[in-house]
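Changelog note: in this version the structure field was regenerated for every chain. One regenerated record is shown below for reference.
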Amino acid sequence: MKIEIEIPDRVVQWIKYGVIIVACLIIGIVLVSRCSGSKDKEAEVVEATEVAAEEVVAVVAEPVAEVAEEAVAAAEDVVITEGMSKREIRRAERAARKAAKRAEKEAEEAAEEAEKEAKRAEKAARKAARKGIEVVEVAEPAPPKLLFGIEEEQYDVIEEEVQSGQTLSHLLDVYGVTPYMVDKIATTAKPTFDFRSLRAGNPYTVFLRSDSMGQKLYHFVYEKNNTDYVVVSIEGDSVLVREGHKEVTLQRRQVSASITSSLWNCMMENDLPAALSMEMEDIFGWSVDFFALSEGDDFTVIYDEKFIDTLRVGVGQVWGALFTHNGKPYYAIPYDQGNKGKVSYWDENGNSLRKQLLKAPLKFTRISSKFSNARLHPIYKVYRPHHGVDYAAPSGTPVVAIADGTVIRRGWDSGGGGNYIRIRHANNLESAYLHLRGFASGIAVGTYVTQGQLIGYVGSTGASTGPHLDFRLYKGGTAIDPLKAPSEPVEPINAANKAAFEAIRDRVMAELQGPVADSVRITLTDLYPTQAVEVATVAEQ
């Protein structure tokens, strides 16, 4: 005999109800998440919804399985055979009806529990949806505004300039920093920066924070120059000192200008950086006499100009130049012949622009008196030989050695020369520098100096009417006119480097003529190929 136990319609309806709820929520929430435009948040919402859906399916499926098991068990309890009497059959039917009622009751209870769980799952799914929507709507926090690497908004910031005569103690005392702490700051900072070297006019910044006791200094920043600064941070009795560097950007420029009076004035008239005139003189100082420039001399130069934001802060690499002096062109082609990481400049034929002697031992001056065998002395008022060249310059102007050599005299010239230095060079040459205000550190008899090295400062010692340098040159002990002294170049480009040099030369000369494609412009990789290979190798490792 077959006994059938049906699952009530209410159970089926609630199962459908739960499945429909989950399906609608999944579709709706995914659509909302996708509209938010955030794939990360979409994935988060979908995951939360899927978890809720799985809970609904699990809860609804469990009571359905229980109902089915009850039905099977009831059916197994009712066994009717052909030999049973009517009384036994009626007893079996009654047992079957009881089993059916029991199963129906269990099914109803399961349906009610399924309804409750479906509603709880619906709430969980909606909560997940709200979470997703709320997260999407929250804007990403703006990055903190940094000044010298410090979160500016957390402090009261004051910007000042060092005044003449001020020390570190003067600067910090007004902010309540004790003498003990000032001394500790100076001692801690000394390996990084000696605060005794503060310069009037340089800016500094203090970072203060207020509390119930008033304002307290937490950070002090001193700007050594336009790009470099020192940060002092104070926390209790602890002091931390670090160096910082402002971000510098480079802008490649090509400029041309004509000389009207001097190279310096030309730079000012054409709004060019002052540092460029120094670079030009360093490059052409052995070939062009910058004290004898003529009106109509001109130049074209390619260089990198350094900027911090929109502020000019200096000159970087000079990529090439052409200076025309008295109708003669002088090219400057950068090339590192010795692969030493230092560029020298060469003419178009591969000859070094660096000669044996500098044209002059100081910068940006005028000639006030030339070499003469009979000059009226400005003090003694008599005619006497003046076997040197007088360069008028402000007191303190740096004086450099015109060539490599050894200092053979340093001291006082009682004959009217005041403080002076005499240097012996190769090829039986000697140079002398008179009327110095003082000597550079480390300069003594026997000191070996290199071309362009600082040896002293312009002054007015001895028989002098004003600050100037009396520069003299001797060949085999005989005075010669420094303005007419011949000078041979150093070693030219060697045969092994000739092809590489000429490739760079052709590209530089093309750019000097006008704008070229980026592929034509030379770069640091062209000037330092060995370093580029080393960097690439390190990157690969």
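Spot check on this record: The radius of gyration is 45 Å. The CA atoms of residues 218 and 234 lie 5 Å apart.
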